[in-house]
Amino acid sequence: MKSFRRVRQKTGSYCGPAVFEMLLSSLGLKLDQEQMVDACGARSSVMKTGISLVELSLGLKKLYPNLVVWQKTDAKVSEMAALMAQGYWVGVDWQGIFAGDEYWDDEEDKWEEFWNKLYKLPSLKGSQGHYCVVLELDLKRGWLRYADPYGHYAGKDRLVAIWEFEERWWDDRLEPDERGRKKYVFENRLMFLIAKKGDKSPAKMGMKKII
User: Fold this and answer.
1) Whether the Cβ atoms of residue 137 and residue 90 lie closer than 8 Å to each other
2) pLDDT at 105
3) Is the pLDDT of residue 1 over 70?
4) pLDDT digits over 8-34, tens only?
5) How buried is residue 139: exposed, middle or buried, by Cβ count under 10 Å (0-12/13-18/19+)?
6) Are 105 and 13 in contact (CB under 8 A)?
7) Is 181 strand, coil or helix?
């Protein structure tokens, strides 16, 4: 496997930049999380809505034009294992596991729900959408090891049963439609990776370039 540096996200909303920093470390490259937020054009929105994978890909393109982000939805754990066997580190977007109320603020969630109802916006089902990097899969024993950049979890790998990961391997969000109105988007079993331009191997696994 390639080298890999575990990092901590600088704020509660920086899991995307932190995961990209980790993925780039496997390519021997560096990334500053604050610089990434600016490159994504997300300075005014990151603390409220985080950064989508498309936005992260656009930001990465500005900083490293020779890199490409590949993604696949409705992916399978076996496909992830196949990519890792080829030497790729794989990022995922899922409902992360946190103790108590250490990730979201309950009062903030209640206000969000109130405003969504007031303006007749779709309600989100998830509350802990989170980016992490999968480091190891043991399909026989049924567990997954991953790097979580959040808070005190950063720097030390975590384990989760594959069945539980699969149940939580989804995320949802509100994003503007063609008219600028918010629409509900459900993302099922999203995995992604960063590769150099010209690398066609991810396409053979059914992955698609984001940019």
Assistant:
1) no
2) 44
3) no
4) 999 999 999 999 999 999 999 999 999
5) exposed
6) no
7) coil
Domain harbouring 24, CATH code: 3.90.70.10
Q: And the tokens for 23?
A: 């993925």
Which secondary-structure segment (H or E) carries 46? helix 46-49
Q: Which amino acid is at 60?
A: L
Between CA 198 and CA 154 the distance in angstroms is 32
Pairing label, strands 208-209, 170-176: unpaired
What's phi and psi for 4, nearest 5 deg? -155, 130
Type of residue at 178: E
pLDDT level of residue 44 (50, 70, 90 thresholds):
very high
Q: Is the pTM of this model over 0.85?
A: yes
Pair 92, 131: CB distance under 8 Å? yes
Structurally, how many domains does the chain consist of?
1
Query: What is the extent of the structural domain holding 64?
Result: 15-209
* Spatial contact of 94 and 192, defined as CB atoms under 8 Å apart: no
